[in-house]
Known about the structure:
Chain A is mostly helical and 202 residues long. Chain A is built from 10 helices and no strands. At the A-B interface, helix 7, helix 9 and helix 10 of A face helix 8, helix 10 and helix 11 of B.
Amino acid sequence: xxxxxxxxxxxxxxxxxxxxxxxxxxxxxxxxxxxxxxxxxxxxxxxxxxxxxxxxxxxxxxxxxxxxxxxxxxxxxxxxxxxxxxxxxxxxxxxxxxxxxxxxxxxxxxxxxxxxxxxxxxxxxxxxxxxxxxxxxxxxxxxxxxxxxxxxxxxxxxxxxxxxxxxxxxxxxxxxxxxxxxxxxxxxxxxxxxxxxxxxxx
Amino acid sequence: xxxxxxxxxxxxxxxxxxxxxxxxxxxxxxxxxxxxxxxxxxxxxxxxxxxxxxxxxxxxxxxxxxxxxxxxxxxxxxxxxxxxxxxxxxxxxxxxxxxxxxxxxxxxxxxxxxxxxxxxxxxxxxxxxxxxxxxxxxxxxxxxxxxxxxxxxxxxxxxxxxxxxxxxxxxxxxxxxxxxxxxxxxxxxxxxxxxxxxxxxx
DNA sequence: GTCTATATCGGGATAGAC
DNA sequence: GTCTATCCCGATATAGAC
Lengths: 202, 202
């Protein structure tokens, strides 16, 4: 979205908030218009349908995810560092555009067939970036992953979940939560016990 | 649900399937009746409202989750073994009652206030079982977890995700996928590399 | 660019026959 | 226990005035 907050952008943001709160189908255009400070019919001056608004939210989100994760890892060569940067980006972005990412994650079902295909394609592109990092890590033997597809799905599922409960006013800053997740995914809950660390000292 | 497949049970199962496919609000009682082999109005002989069906699906699911996970771990004393059993149960149950668990996970928003409170309470009960295992593991120093709440959420989020993509006709049996997840959560993607294993041999 | 008024449709729920 | 018929409401989308 452009920097200047036009009415069109207000509708966009409020739609994401509303769709997250009530779900796409339970959200009404009257309710959305009300939040945007206009009447129901006026929405059609800015968007051609409710479906279009949903699609644009998802397209915006997927475009950002793909472009920005590539930016985040572009200067790294080490797979471990790439993964750290990618995970951290994923979690942080999901807490910045919380509403948009939530809707993108939860409302795939509500898309028309054509729109569905486009978004799924973008999602595959995004997931492949993570799979490729894991593959590299296996190749350098810095990682050991039996099943790349399962592991990348588990990773993204786990990280996306942060945005469901993250409270920006809470005690823990998001950077620290992201670091928790990185450590958890890299080392598990047993890999950093005293016994392992002692052994690694040798 | 009772063993005998009554019409009431058919409606219940078809509702879970339909709500998963289209979402609660996009599902119609006429469509549900059609799947159950009756006409729309006849549903009200078995259930008092659409909302009641949703609530019963969730109550059934949470009751099963709570009771069965306790059964699964009751003979174990070792926190690591408890966790293995609990994770395996969680994943396997989500692929048995896939539709019911999916709906329970995705349609909290669609519950009435009163029903919402009851289900959230049950979900907290369920999550506490996992948190307690992690706490025990920290106490015995078999695990090392900085943030129990974050870790348990990450775990459940990750495991629940299996049911979104698991294909019972695929190559991998669910028991093997569950084992992948257990290993991933316990050791991460780095904890089982050659370097660590060599160090642990000493 | 926003308003009001309205066309049109479909869904949840009920009533009463069989 | 299931059917048909229907009530009632609310939602998307459109038309035309300002």
